[in-house]
Hints:
single chain
Amino acid sequence: MGQGVTAGRRDGALLVVGDVVTDVVARHRGPLAAGTDTAAVIRTLPGGAGANVACWAAHAGCADVRLLGRVGADAAAWHERELVASGVRPRLVVDPEAATGTVVCLVDTGASAERTFLTDSGASLRLEPGDWSDTLLDGVARLHLSGYLLFTEPSRALAEVALAAARARGVPVSLDPASAGFLAELGVTRFLAFAQALDVLLPSRDEACLLTGLSDAADAAAKLSRLVPLVVAKAGAEGALVARSGAVAARVPAAAAVARDTTGAGDAFTGAFLAALVAGADAREAAARGCRAGAEAVGRVGGRPPRPAGAG
C-alpha cells in the first residue's frame, strides 16, 4: 500500500509522466451520418492526458511543472513549443521509428457535448525504462503518472521504475486511470496491483465503479480508499468525491459551466487538484479547485487551458 504521504513539499515541482499526442477535434451536431458526409468544425490541437494535466497544473499556478513524454520526429518541435508556451518544462524523447500519437475526438455539439475518441497511441506509449533517470525527481514535490502508461508493456515498465524511484525518495505519487475502455482490457486485478503503491488515485466515476464492481460512485470511492490513502472520484456535473480510510470524507459540488467540449475536463481537474496540493491545500479545497478548472475546460474546445498572457 502507498505510504500515505500526501502532503508533498510545498516548495517543489510537479513532475508528470505521460502521453503527448496530437488531437484532431471534429465538432458535429447530432448523430454521424454513416456512409456519407457529416458537417463538422475540425481543428488540430496539442493534447494527451499527461501533457494536458501538466498544462492545467501550470495554468492553476504551479510554478514548476515538468513533463516526461515521447513523441515522433514529425511533431516534436511543435509539441515542445506548445508546452513551453503553456508554462511547462518538457523533456520529450523523440522516437526513432513511431510517429506522434494522434487522437481523433468526435464531439457532439448538442447539449451533452459528449465525445468519442479514436486513438492511435503512436510514440506516446513507447516510453520505456531507458527514458527514465532518477535525476528527474530532483526538486520534485509530487510525481503524477498518466494511467495510459499502464496499457502497453514498455510504458508500464517505465511507470513501475518511476513509482519505485519516487517511493525510495518519499515523493508522493498520483495516478489517473485515464480510460475505462483500456482499463477493462488491462484487467482490474493488474491495475489494482499497481495502484496499491500509490498515494493518490483520481478515477472518473465510471472508472471507480469498474475497479470495484460497485454501481454507486460514493461506495466505489470509499472502497478504493481502503487500498489507496486518498481517492478523489471525478463525477463531472455532479462534482467530486473525496474518500479516505474506507469512507467518503467530502462531497464537492461542480462549478457552473456551459459545455462546448468535454475533452480534457478530467485532465483539467487533475492538473488543478495537484497544483493545489503542491501549494499546501487540503484535499477538499484541492478538489474544489479541480472542479473549477473542469468547468473552465468544458467551455473551451480542446484539452488545454488558455495560454498565459504574452506567450507565443
